[in-house]
Amino acid sequence: MYDHHAPGGAGTSGSDCQITVSVVSHDQGPLIKALLSDLNKYSSRSIDVILTINASEDMDLENGEYDFSIRILRNAKPRGFGSNHNAAFALRRGEYFCVLNPDIRLNMDPFGPLLSSLADSNVGVVAPLVRNVEGTVEDSARRMPTPLVIVGKLFDRKQEPDYCIGQQPINPDWIAGMFMLFRSDVFARMGGFDERYFLYYEDVDLCARLMLAGYKIVLDPSVSVVHDARRESHRNFGYFRRHVASIARFFISPVFFRYMLRRAQLRNETSF
Fold first, then answer.
1. What pLDDT, on the 0 to 100 scale, is given for residue 175?
2. What is the distance of C-alpha 230 from the center of its chain?
3. Partners of 6 in the β-ladder
């Protein structure tokens, strides 16, 4: 339900909003405020933020504090990643829809070049380069996982990045859900995230479905953001269990089998 509505400055109401940004808080008030401040400081685009409170917490946001509108949704009980962002999408105002994690920090306006990539109707989703707090490039652009790849990672402590990222945009198999920018019509056409994945692999599944529908995945390194990665699944058994369950769900899904069949077909076509 709606908990609060904080109106922003001029030009941010109604259908005027170009980008609807969806952020979900899990008792992450300080991170949320830092992210909102970054958006207020750096975004030169007309945006509208939908903030979902997924756990019991107070969120004190002053009216007029930001130059954009903030709609706050408060869940009666926690919902999954996909369910929260799909619910926010149903209330979108923008032509574009951005999924953004609370622990993302901005040091530039991320939207200009990313919107340019989405001007290509063949692009389904675009993301910036993601660095950690030390400045190292994170593995936010990856090849499609397979059971053999997952097993290999269990025994490979070095874990080199899947892609060599230079200055030009690349087309990875999938991009991590910490920052994903879609055209709203494409997100709607795909049916949004599959809500059967409560946490983890929603991004993998959606990128696979986008590629099966003929769309490209793009990572644009001309834009970068900072991610304070918590890696909860490495430290908390509950998160780890959800992670393993999501991996298993994906590997037995029709999407995965269709994707692998399509990849095999493409390999056969290029071998002649």
1. 97
2. 16
3. 70
